[in-house]
Predict the structure.
Amino acid sequence: MTKILSGVFFVFALLGSSLTWSNEEGARDTVVKVVEAFRNDIVADKAVLAKDPALLEERVNSILTGVVDFDDFSKKVMGKYYRRASPEQRARFANVTKDTLLKTYGTSLLELDADRINVLPLGPQGRGRETKVDVDFQMEAGGMLNISFYMEETKAGNWMLSNVVINNINFGLTFRKQFGVMMQQNKNDIELAISAWRESLAKKS
């Protein structure tokens, strides 16, 4: 009897391990689709998009809409100040963040080498809900861009981007710290901090 129970446990342990790996592969598959969209819709058409910023922003937005919840991202950036913000302030902060990031990082995508983008096999994962997917981007001018996409599965079974680490710089954490500094500099006035946030992001674009 003990042997049977041990055997059943072993089988279910294997199944559980297999299902977990399968789920994590879903995160990688999502990143692969995003990267292929970048390659085919952005990088391959850079000659046209470099002259048409509006079209570039439209395409980047189209690619990211299905995998990035900008409202949730903005909530994480605002951190502890999110609860103090009004619904209008939260929406405005999310729109400012989204619009500026689409312009800034859409332009940077044009610098990638379409033939040298590599989504790496999944490595060891942490114990949290996020699955890390590493991608190497070769720049046309030389140099490598290492990006770790942290993906999180929703209750509906979709994989959404939770955070990004670029060349070992935690994108979400950096932004949260920057906004916290702006709140302190503006005496915890959310309106003034959002205006400062807009100006700060505009300088990066």
